[in-house]
Amino acid sequence: MDIKTFCFLITLCLGIQRLTSDISRRQKRAWIIETFTIDEGFDGPFPHYVGSINIDPNISLFEIHGPGVDKEPLNLFKIDNKAKMWIMYPVDREEYNILKLIFQAYNKEKVLLNTRLTIVIVIDDTNDNEPKFGNQTYEVTIESTPLQGTALINVTAIDHDSTEENSKFSFSIESVTPTPQNFQLFINKEPDSGKGTISFKGCLDHEKAQKYTLIVKATDHGQPRPLSSSTTVIINIEDGNRHLPVFTNEKSQASVKEGQEDVLISRLHVIDKDTKGTKAWKAKYKIQGDKSNNFRIVTDPDTNDGLLYVEKKLDYEDDPVKNINITSENEILYFICKVIDRNTAGLWKINTIIRSPFSVAQSGTRAEETSRLSTHHLTVTVEDVNEAPVFDPPNKTISVFEDVALGFYLETFTAKDPDIGAASTIRYIIGEDPAGCVTVDSRTGEITTSKSLDRESQFVKDGLYVVQIYAVDNGEPPQTGTATLSIKIMDVNDNAPSLDKNIIDMCQSDRISSVNVTALDPDEEPSSGPFLFKLLGDVKNKWRIDPEKGYSFKLVKEHNVSQNAMFLGHHKLQLEVSDLQGKTAVHSLLIYVCKCFKTTRPDCRLHKDTGSRLGSEALGILLLSMTLLTGLLLLSFRMSCKPEKVPFPDDNVEQYLMKSNTEEPGTDCEVFFFFFHFKSNLLAYYSIVHLKNIL
């Protein structure tokens, strides 16, 4: 490296070090803050001078960026080349409360300098927003007259000013239409809230006015000029229950036949001066003195009458006369309010009478005569009717064995006539007896068997046979009571075992053949299976039973007789079957043995019938053929060989045959005998061949 190059490098390093030091020194001048204040309530004229930005006099070029310039709100500020600032139109603090601009400076060569300036524009709040209600109209309906101090309805408002002094507001009631007479409305605002509650003091009265219209105002505390807005509040007053229903009659009578239920026996009328159709007018009735709950009363929705029904059957013998009291109130509470003193702090002094439906009256001072309930006294006469005899008990269950003798005593049913003083005669008859197994003594009610009880009968369900007994009085008209006798029939061993089949088809084969047979017994255990099976007679090496105990068995044809042609045909066996109790029955088994060829399910009786039919046909043909042959032979031997002339008719009969007879004597006999001899032999031959084919 030569000396010139070395000097250049040293100079370059020193220049870079100086530049770095100069940049560090200039960075200390960055982030200078300039602040301006704008009143959002200023409404012109525009443009309006805000102030001058304090910058270095050596700076001749600069740029400003940020909200109000090149960001929303666009073009709010105008800045000239000497850094003087104007505002071009009003700004809303509730939308933009602080705007920050960035100032960037350049040197004469348009190189960006490191000096940066932040410009802050603060928007001062002014009272430019009035409180606004959530609704233009509020409405409420008071269903029943409330006590004074009760909240009737709430209203809400909000003020969008930013500062506390400008956003605070108060509620006030500006007007009430119509003018209240016995009450006064007021409104309270909840602290730190935009909700106001409208209440009243005194007594609301539907009869004075059914609706009140209020103008409610919300006014803020802003200065120098407070702002406000208003809303309409409608308060509807429903008819309060100021009149109790009053019965038109204090007493009445009704009658009902004993045993009747759900029948209307009386209609009670009331008068109520409250508005018809309202809850204050609708009556509710209550029955007093009905300890057994024999009656019920409902309200006719159209007439407001009380409809009295018999809920449970009445018994003349128990109580022929019923006395009950009925009171009436309304669906909503009875309420009376009267102002005593208005000149009191806070709420007024009032007197109220309040009664919830069917409750004791409560009053602010005393109970008044008007709060007493109207009462109606009703006398119900129960008319006596002929009642059905009553069994006690009406249902009985007994157990008997099914082999009891005829006339066996089962049970006795007794019925009583519930009518007082009735000299009625009760007779007993059979009501339902599906199998006709019992009879009843018409005078005593004693039940006995009229035929054997069969547990296996179709009328016995799950071992139970049900009979109904009637008790009939001699009243006018006659009445009938019913009792039920359930007879549990216990099983006895009265059925011998039987077989599911007695006729059996078997094939002749090289192997041992067998057929399944099942034993049946309708008796229950232990009077049924498993059964013992035993073949009777000479069956050794021919037939056997396998197994000899059980519910079914196989009838086996032994091997040594399976191929014996003489064994074809039918066989009759005797089989003895015994149940667990030793009850025995001997059954005949008829077995048909035949050649089955390729069939797997033999039907030897079908083969036997077919063979018999074919044999009979062949025998008939043979007998007919022999009879015809014998007759022809006899006929041929009785023929005469003597010539015989047959006379021709005369010419006058206009025949065309010639008078001629050229046959020689004996010619007719030979021809005739030969012909019949040939036909006889042919018929006999045909008969023998046909019989052979059939056999």
Main features:
single chain; 695 residues; mainly beta; Immunoglobulin-like; 6 domains; five-stranded mixed beta sheet; four-stranded mixed beta sheet; 4 helices; 45 strands; disordered N terminus
Q: What is the topology?
A:
Blueprint: H1 3-27, E1 32-39, E2 48-52, E3 61-65, E4 77-79, E5 84-87, E6 98-106, E7 112-124, E8 132-133, E9 137-142, E10 153-158, H2 164-167, E11 169-177, E12 183-189, E13 195-202, E14 211-220, E15 228-237, E16 246-247, E17 251-257, E18 263-268, E19 270-271, E20 283-288, E21 295-299, E22 306-310, E23 321-330, E24 334-341, E25 349-355, E26 362-363, E27 374-383, E28 390-391, E29 395-401, E30 409-412, E31 415-416, E32 427-432, E33 438-440, E34 446-449, E35 464-472, E36 480-490, E37 498-499, E38 503-507, E39 513-520, E40 531-536, E41 543-546, E42 549-550, E43 552-557, E44 569-578, E45 584-594, H3 604-637, H4 667-694
Parallel strand pairs: 1-7, 9-15, 17-27, 29-36, 38-45
Antiparallel strand pairs: 2-5, 3-6, 4-5, 6-7, 8-10, 10-13, 11-14, 12-13, 14-15, 16-19, 18-22, 20-23, 21-22, 23-27, 24-25, 25-26, 28-31, 30-34, 32-35, 33-34, 35-36, 37-39, 39-43, 40-42, 40-44, 41-43, 44-45
Helix pairs in contact: 3-4
